[in-house]
Fold this sequence. Notes:
Elements: H1 10-33, H2 44-60, E1 70-76, E2 103-107, E3 111-112, E4 118-122, H3 130-133, E5 142-151, E6 154-162, H4 174-181, H5 197-203, E7 211-215, H6 221-235, H7 237-243, E8 245-249, H8 252-258, H9 261-264, E9 271-274, H10 275-279, H11 291-297, H12 301-311, E10 321-325, E11 328-332, H13 334-347, H14 351-372, H15 379-386, H16 389-398, H17 404-413, H18 415-422, H19 428-434, H20 450-463, E12 471-474, H21 482-490, E13 496-501, H22 515-522, E14 528-532, E15 534-535, H23 540-546, H24 550-553, E16 561-562, E17 570-574, H25 581-593, E18 599-603, H26 608-617, E19 635-639, E20 648-654, H27 656-661, H28 666-677, E21 680-688
Parallel strand pairs: 2-4, 7-13, 7-14, 8-9, 8-12, 12-13, 15-16, 17-21, 18-19, 18-20, 20-21
Antiparallel strand pairs: 1-2, 1-5, 3-4, 5-6, 10-11
Helix pairs in contact: 1-2, 5-6, 6-7, 12-18, 12-20, 13-14, 14-15, 17-20, 20-21, 21-22, 25-26
Pfam families: UvrD-helicase, UvrD_C_2
Organism: Streptomyces glycanivorans
Binding site for ATP: 215-222
Amino acid sequence: xxxxxxxxxxxxxxxxxxxxxxxxxxxxxxxxxxxxxxxxxxxxxxxxxxxxxxxxxxxxxxxxxxxxxxxxxxxxxxxxxxxxxxxxxxxxxxxxxxxxxxxxxxxxxxxxxxxxxxxxxxxxxxxxxxxxxxxxxxxxxxxxxxxxxxxxxxxxxxxxxxxxxxxxxxxxxxxxxxxxxxxxxxxxxxxxxxxxxxxxxxxxxxxxxxxxxxxxxxxxxxxxxxxxxxxxxxxxxxxxxxxxxxxxxxxxxxxxxxxxxxxxxxxxxxxxxxxxxxxxxxxxxxxxxxxxxxxxxxxxxxxxxxxxxxxxxxxxxxxxxxxxxxxxxxxxxxxxxxxxxxxxxxxxxxxxxxxxxxxxxxxxxxxxxxxxxxxxxxxxxxxxxxxxxxxxxxxxxxxxxxxxxxxxxxxxxxxxxxxxxxxxxxxxxxxxxxxxxxxxxxxxxxxxxxxxxxxxxxxxxxxxxxxxxxxxxxxxxxxxxxxxxxxxxxxxxxxxxxxxxxxxxxxxxxxxxxxxxxxxxxxxxxxxxxxxxxxxxxxxxxxxxxxxxxxxxxxxxxxxxxxxxxxxxxxxxxxxxxxxxxxxxxxxxxxxxxxxxxxxxxxxxxxxxxxxxxxxxxxxxxxxxxxxxxxxxxxxxxxxxxxxxxxxxxxxxxxxxxxxxxxxxxxxxxxxxxxxxxxxxxxxxxxxxxxxxxxxx
Length: 697
């Protein structure tokens, strides 16, 4: 406990405030549960909507025993100004330290007492920002910043920084370091108590612009992206409630790992999905592409091929349109219909929108003739003419409806059709690669691949505009193809995005080579690119070892500078022979299990069955990636292909050379190894029988 004390026993006072805050939160929840909506709803639809909102509010007010209500306190020198007081009511609940300033407890959500006065301030409120940004050079009118330490949900320690006291020397916060290094069991945790100034600036950047965050292992980019969503929902709740938010992750295991972060911050309405989830509505993915085919299908040039193929369905009219109404016949010449078609093509409308507009254009031409003949038709007559069989037949012949899946199927099975629309865009060799080896007769019979589904999604957007959300977060974005970027970009075309990734961790044949290129395909070329280089998760010794690979996998990229020095955190151990490797790996896992926290055994995908059998023979059960670790089950066996984005207290890495050899080329293999080497929070053991890749020295 620090020497400075504001009363005879400040820890007791803080515990009392915690207990009172929990009581207040419980009362807030009970107030919502007691609401009677029977007299305020006009019908069952309104009642259902209101009840759903109430249920969500009740969930958001849950008091999670493992999640402290507050983690810090700010003692201001003066009363806060109006610009900071948003979400803070006037009154005595904030506290008043000696000197006339104000006192605020900073936590994961707002808590107020029976009078409406705040007991805990939401970390996203303006008054809370100095908790992350204040420093001795710029104290932001904060006299004291207090951090709290918890054990099992109980407040057990506190630590003070007197930002305006010149006699106090600056020191690294032990509680902050302990929170960063706290053993990881269960899903990913929020970092709301440990956000650093450079992270906070990204978190609080405005809704209007797109932000791209380049961050090496352990820099907290995923957490920054999730907390940015939480902040935007706080600052722009009404707008985002209408437009929606989405988090896009690389795979289901990763999404399961992060899924509890936003609920812990009281945000329940954010959808999470993979790119495959977004584009899977129209066809079932049952096939796989070779790397060459996947790269070509993921190339942005395929968008041009699709656009030409769709527009090829438009044909000039061969005959006039003759509409019979009663005893009168109204004729629209073929050249006039052709002018309408040319105008619609020139406007570059969505194909489906133009298909809907053309009958109205023809009907309008008929109405003009009716008016010239002395009749007085109205809108109802125009709509009736647009539905006339002759008009419908003409539109079907000139601008027929297009089914996106059928169009893509024809492109991938009909070599002549593909050649006609890929001429000058794809080479003959590239066209051969994308053609299906076993042509299917129908959409349902086709063995669609993940890349095919993205092509169908692109074609569907050319027919009808994809609905845009208010904000989309894309994590591990370096692994997306240009066509996948376009698929995600369509879903935030009128909104904004947070793009998170690390160019050095790109492990797909089509992985991003520059963020400028990626943002262009996303449709956000004006996005701001930020770089996080301070590492808080991976020990300095481990990240330095992994960074030996950077010149080979991402030349010019700045290595992460870890703030954590943990002597003994890296062990590289050679095993005498391949036959002894499995036993050595099991022994290393047993050694790690003696430590507190989670353990990840990472191995080349081909090595997983052998290691699983060796662990079982030794009496150890292991989890698969995505399964939640518990105090009783802490060991996860992780194929290297699924390691990205995950983290464990201790990692045992099996045979680095096998990880590299498991990929189609050395560069991708070394990037996969870089990912595997940087999953550890406290310690890494590398075991090898084969020689290590020469890039590791």
